[in-house]
Amino acid sequence: MLRVDFSGRELARLRMARSVDPLWEIALSLHMLQTRQAALVFDPWRREVHGALERSGLTAAVRGLMLLCPPAAYFPDFLTPGGEPDLDTGLEKVMSTPRQRLAAELSRLYAGAPLPSGVRRLAEGSPEALRWLGTALRRYYTVAVEPYLPAIRTEAAADRSERAEAALTGGAEGLLASYGVLPEWRCEGTALRAPYPMDREIRLDGRTLTLVPGFFCVRAPLALADDELPPVLVHPLSPAPGWLERSRPSESTPPAAQLIGTSRAQLLGLLDRPMTTTGLAAALDLAPSTTSRHTSVLREAGLLTSRRSGLCVLHRRTPLGEALLEGALR
């Protein structure tokens, strides 16, 4: 069980990451490839990625990455430096990890056992090994994560809208309580309890805890092993079964897209639950100004409603919008 007890000051400083972290998604997806967790949800992705890795000639490189990132209670913190919104900056931080830290974390990973030769060279800080690591992580990302970014961003944006609404209506306590709806997670006043491979307490000591959504995270959260690092808690987005099929573009243009355009039809389709303009823009990879124009047109057509909640505007699909998406309009 994982325990996080917040003081009033620490609770007020609780923050959400803007979206998924590319390096956490790399690590989490590597875990998923090595297990059968959430088979109904992720097996179609596993089959697709295994085939793509083989066609790309990346199978051996990914086996090397798995030696660094096993689905165990511990894997090295330097692989997920955090706080970097883009892959390039994150990879630069990984490749700049000091030799002393590489040696300490990789030795902990193998707990006194002999290090495999490639891992040993990395632990020694070999520039060639670090370049290999950066290249392998980037190539793996382009095959196993990047093609699925539309679905990942959609889930992350919907989650952020839900958390933002909880924070606007209930403050920091409301934001914390919103995580209590996750399976086996509990919020007890200003304390958070979650499933974890071992008993562990995250001591904040006045620091800010950042909550990071994880698409490939299943049930239990993940936290950095080193308590001296800025505290992070990665929580599951829990995509529903069939997410991969639903993310594929239809071979024929849906009736709603024929009537209102593809982007507006996609926007309307995202509103299974209320979302902010910012969340919609992130999910659709559009500029906020463009998204705002789309919501204005849809609102004037009676297909969605917009309501201000604190500093945000939440958009909801109307029954007319539902009917349009379902093709019930004639």
TrEMBL record:
One of its GO terms (molecular function) is DNA-binding transcription factor activity. The keyword DNA-binding applies. Keywords: DNA-binding, Transcription, Transcription regulation. It comes from the Bacteria. SMART domains: HTH_ARSR. Residues 258-329 form the HTH arsR-type domain. This is Transcriptional regulator.
